[in-house]
UniProtKB/TrEMBL annotation:
Domain GFO/IDH/MocA-like oxidoreductase: from-to ranges: 149-269
One function term, GO molecular function aspect: inositol 2-dehydrogenase (NAD+) activity
SUPFAM superfamilies assigned: Glyceraldehyde-3-phosphate dehydrogenase-like, C-terminal domain, NAD(P)-binding Rossmann-fold domains
EC number(s) given by UniProt: 1.1.1.18, 1.1.1.369
Enzyme class: oxidoreductase
Residue ranges of domain Gfo/Idh/MocA-like oxidoreductase N-terminal in the record: 1-141
Protein name: Myo-inositol 2-dehydrogenase/D-chiro-inositol 1-dehydrogenase
């Protein structure tokens, strides 16, 4: 297969190495707003393919890289004209929607990192476009491919836990991003907890009915200056009455911490409760967790990212439908939108207040 990749920043370069390691991929066609960055990533992949050592940014994801062709082109037009079988969009957020539309117009299956757009209105427009097109679009919510979350989903679906009454989930970053990122991030609920909202729907098969959210700042001033918070919390009620407690922070110095607990009538199950847990026990004589801890989302979800792009290759070959559609992305975005409204107005928000497909919830 020939796969195109737009954007070679941190996640784009990571995806390039993962794609180059897939047995299905014979050639990568790469573009970036900075041609020098695209050339650097292409050169790194060529070095890795020849077995050279010391390549910048080499990780476990690169150790299995095969010899694939890597070509740099000036822009998305040239990329789509090169006869790619699939297109991976990993640019900054403002580039997502235009490139998605371009791929759909060209009839090329496309994978897009979240969010598909920066606003609710444009996300709705893209969901409507996707619904009217036969071109598959796979949105990058990698937790759907994590073994722990998939096990939790199976436990809920099989009735193993009985009825589910409480869920706790969170996204806790070890350290904040650069100050320049925050004004365009969309806020902590759209940027961080949108993953929790998507995986909540994935694991439970339910929709969010009501939201009450809050936030606070104890860290750097640039969060408040951008109208954002560095720590957030939300109480969600699902459409079957299940209570979900969601948290997020940019300051979790103990390590990157992403978990979910699902509590039911007959049992409970936890995702991320292993020896990498970024927490210490206060109980005497307890040696759990023993480590090592993880320090970034890429390290925490490395196998999931690999599985996600392998799944996209199958989507591009026409072997399976998209495992995460634009409609799925829209529903997670709507919950994040409700949280931001709740935080701003300090009140509960019913999901019927948040616009959806066709102008309704």
């Amino acid at each position: 297969m020939r796969i195109g990749l737009a954007g070679v920043g941190r996640i784009g370069a990571f995806h390039a190495r993962t794609l180059a390691a897939l047995d299905d991929v014979d050639e990568l066609v790469v573009t970036d707003a900075d041609p020098r960055a695209a050339e650097r990533v292409a050169a790194e992949l060529r070095l890795l393919a020849t077995g050279a050592t010391g390549a910048t940014g080499a990780t476990e994801a690169t150790r299995e890289t095969r010899e694939v062709g890597v070509r740099v082109v000036p822009d998305a037009d040239a990329l789509l004209a090169s006869g790619v079988d699939g297109f991976v969009v990993a640019t900054a957020t403002p580039g997502h929607a235009p490139l998605l539309r371009q791929a759909v117009a060209a009839g090329v299956p496309v994978f897009c990192e979240k969010p598909v757009a920066a606003t609710l209105k444009e996300t709705i427009e893209l969901a409507e476009l996707a619904a009217s097109s036969a071109v598959p679009i796979h949105v990058g919510f990698q937790r759907r491919f994590d073994a722990g979350y998939r096990r939790a989903r199976a436990a809920v679906a099989s009735g193993e836990l009985g009825f589910v009454h409480t869920i706790r989930a969170g996204t806790h970053d070890q350290a904040p991003p650069h100050a320049s990122y925050i004004p365009t991030s969309g806020g902590i609920f759209r940027d961080c907890n949108v993953h929790d909202f998507d995986i909540l729907r994935f694991v439970t098969g339910r929709e969010v009915a009501t939201v009450y959210a809050t936030g606070a700042n104890k860290g750097a001033a640039f969060f408040a200056e951008a109208g954002d918070v560095d720590t957030g919390g939300a109480l969600l009620t699902l459409d079957d009455g299940t209570i979900a407690l969601i948290s997020s922070t940019r300051y979790h110095g103990a390590g990157h911490d992403v978990r979910m607990e699902v509590h039911g009538e007959k049992g409970a199950i936890a995702v991320g409760l292993d020896h990498s847990l970024a927490m210490s026990s206060a109980e005497e004589g307890v040696d759990f967790p023993r480590g090592p801890r993880t320090w970034s989302f890429m390290e925490r979800f490395l196998p999931a990212y690999r599985a996600e792009l392998a799944a996209f290759a199958a989507v591009a070959r026409g072997e399976r439908p998209s495992p995460c559609t634009v409609r799925d992305a829209l529903e997670a975005f709507r919950v994040a939108e409700a949280c931001e409204l709740s935080r701003a107005e300090r009140r509960p928000v019913d999901m019927s207040e948040i616009e959806g497909i066709g102008g309704g919830a």
